[in-house]
Each structure stands twice: as structure tokens, then as C-alpha cells.
Design a protein that fits this description.
Blueprint: E1 8-15, H1 22-36, E2 42-50, E3 65-71, H2 74-83, H3 85-97, E4 102-115, E5 137-145, H4 150-164, E6 170-178, E7 192-198, H5 201-208, H6 211-219, E8 224-234
Helix pairs in contact: 1-3, 4-6
Length: 240
């Protein structure tokens, strides 16, 4: 990886004024796919809905739609954010029929990005339709560390790789550090970001009960000040 231009994971959490309306959520995700999934330099794109069945106290549930995009580098993100006409069309379109939507953005420069053989970048095999395969689960967790030195962040990241990156059912694993874009929507209360796409929730449930996951906690004792967890089900593109 080019250290001068690291890969960037751009995650946006949308809170819709009419978020309880399934049709509005579906339309918003369709607009995300139509306008925001094909920008130059974008390596991967996923759009997902809040996992309503994940109600653990540590889960952030103050959003309706999660969108995760991987860019080749910050320059490609800047092109998308400031000079992509489709991005501008998206803003105009959703502001017209979904006014009052708010968003939180969490960005990370990635040190690790791995895809499995059965983990296509779009997640299109997933399905939430009755009788179809279960949807893939996007599990994103942001760690605030007690020691914010570069050495502590590197040590913590190595522990994440050792205990959390190699489990059955992982389709994508991403790990990196905070990228503070200095925007008014940017959230910067974390030091290390980790995102995992699971083939389905049962694989995630197995991971939570695994020996390696259990071993992660004593290995990081005293290192974590807080965690922020976002779980969402990836929705396929019906036109794919």
C-alpha cells in the first residue's frame, strides 16, 4: 500500500425524518445506489439498513441507513465529495422528497483491507426477501483508546488483526485509524475503526462466542476507553 496515499473508508449514517417508513428507506437506498456508487476511484460500495434485531446496549441505533464506500485515496474522495455532479444530484434529489435528513460521517485511513472469495464488493447476493438467502451483516466498530499515541494505536491494531480478522463467514475485513476530514458532519471520537462484512448473522453470532473473540478482551485490557458499534443489514441492488 502507498503510505502517502492510503485507502480510505468513508462511512455515512443517515437519520431520516420518516425513517420508520419502509418505502422511504427503500427509496433513499435506491438513490444512494443510483447516484453515489460509481464515482471515479471508488473501490467498493455498500448500503444497508439498521439491524433492528440488534439491541445490545453498546449498539448505536440513532440512524436508519448506513452507507460505506472505499476510495483508492483521499484525492478520489475529494473528487467525489466536491466535484462529482452525481453527488450534487443526489443531494438535490433527496432534499426534495426526504427533507430533514441528518447524517454523521466517520472516516478512516485503512492499514488492512481484505476481501474473501465470496465477498463481492457490492454485496449483491444478499437478500432479505422471504425464502431467499439471509442478508449480509455490516458490523462497524469504532474504538476510542486510553493511550492515543501512535505506538498504542499500532499495538491495538495488531491485536485486532490477531484475534478478530480470521473467522468463518467474513466477506470483508477493514481496519485503520481515524481520518479527520474537519467537516461539520465528521465524527472524531475514535482512534481505530474496524468494519467486517459477515455472510449472515449466524456467522457473526458464532464469532461473538469464539475463543479468539473472548481472548481479545484480556489482550486489550486497559486499552479501550469506549466503543461505538453500528450493525446494519446490507441491501442488494434489485437491478443487479
Amino acid at each position: 500500500m502507498d503510505i502517502a496515499s492510503p485507502i480510505m473508508l468513508h462511512s455515512t449514517y443517515f437519520k431520516l425524518k420518516e425513517g420508520k417508513n419502509a418505502a422511504v428507506r427503500a427509496a433513499y437506498m435506491a438513490a444512494c445506489r443510483e447516484y453515489l456508487s460509481g464515482s471515479k476511484g471508488m473501490m467498493s460500495f455498500w448500503v444497508s439498513e439498521l439491524a433492528q434485531d440488534m439491541k445490545r446496549p453498546e449498539n448505536d441505533r440513532d440512524y436508519d441507513i448506513a452507507m460505506n464506500q472505499v476510495f483508492q485515496n483521499k484525492s478520489m474522495f475529494d473528487l467525489y465529495n466536491g466535484h462529482d455532479p452525481l453527488h450534487e444530484q443526489f443531494v438535490a434529489e433527496v432534499n426534495r422528497w426526504a427533507p430533514g435528513t441528518t447524517r454523521r460521517v466517520q472516516d478512516a485511513y485503512l492499514d488492512t483491507l481484505r476481501y474473501s472469495a465470496d465477498g463481492p464488493s457490492s454485496g449483491t447476493p444478499a437478500s432479505s426477501k422471504k425464502g431467499g438467502p439471509p442478508p449480509r451483516l455490516m458490523h462497524s466498530i469504532y474504538f476510542a483508546l486510553t493511550d492515543k499515541s501512535g505506538a498504542a494505536k499500532a499495538q491495538f491494531s495488531e491485536i485486532c488483526l490477531r484475534y478478530l480478522s480470521d473467522h468463518p463467514g467474513i466477506c470483508m475485513f477493514a481496519l485503520g485509524g481515524l481520518a479527520d476530514m474537519g467537516r461539520d458532519v465528521s465524527v472524531t471520537n475514535y482512534d481505530v475503526a474496524m468494519s467486517i462484512i459477515w455472510r449472515s448473522k449466524p456467522f457473526y453470532d458464532g464469532y461473538l462466542k469464539s475463543k479468539d473473540h473472548d481472548a481479545f478482551f484480556p489482550a486489550t485490557k486497559g486499552m479501550i476507553a469506549n466503543t461505538y458499534i453500528f450493525d446494519s443489514y446490507i441491501q442488494p441492488d434489485p437491478n443487479a
